[in-house]
Amino acid sequence: YLGALQLPNRTHPAVPVGDQSQARLLEVVGEKPVFDFKPKGHLELGEGLDIIRQKRLSHVSGHRSYYLCGAGALLQHALVTFTLRKLLSKGFLPMTVPDLLRGAVFEGCGVQPSAIPSPVYTIDPTRFEDLCLAGTSEVGIAGYFMDHAVQLQDLPLRVVCSSTCYRAETDTGREPWGLYRVHQFTKVEMFGVTAAECGTESEELLDEFLGLQKEIFSELGLHYR
To answer: Which stretches make up the Aminoacyl-transfer RNA synthetases class-II family profile domain (predicted)?
Structure first.
């Protein structure tokens, strides 16, 4: 079993072999704005508007943490609500999941809580045995379907979940670049369960999810690649 955990997931045949230099840009949607001045970054803008606070928090919550205030907090709620409404209209099943999960659930998703350094936060084992904080609602949704039979006629299942994600990105004191690789954030997740009758179901649902992501970014007026 421990040996099997070392086996990587299969890679899609279309993925280039090699490092980042071999990556292919498949599509660019929208146009990146051009300014006649040097634009500020999101952290500088947010701090100037008093909607993001990331400085002087080491005594409160350590590094890689932040506060959203006023319009910053409302913007996060608005983005979550916008995305949930969008996906509910597409027939997704809304779900809330536990943040604390057993190690076996993480292993089933390809995450090893016992790795060094661990990618997840582990709760004090002397008080709560084998419980970790999820870095994505994907783990909780996968746990819901563990040892769980789904009728073939009900597939594919489309699930959407908004959750708090906890990630042990780094514990160094180096100044982070804004709200990036933070220890805690809110994310809306799309999750699918498909059949495997002809072997193309998973890729077809992935393409559907990708199309929905494009719709979301385009409707928000963002350019993306």
So the answer is: 36-225
Give the pLDDT confidence score for residue 89 in this predicted structure: 97
| Number of folded domains that form the chain | 1
Report if residue 29 sits inside a domain: no
DSSP class per residue in 45-102: HHHHTTSEE-SS-TTTT-SS--EE-THHHHHHHHHHHHHHHHHHTTTPEE----SEE-
Q: What's 196's domain CATH number?
A: 3.30.930.10
Residue with structure tokens 């990556």?
Answer: 23
DSSP per-residue string spanning 24-48? -----BS-----SS-PPPHHHHHHH
Residues making up the chain, counted from first to last: 225
Range of the domain at 107: 41-220
In this prediction the pTM is 0.89
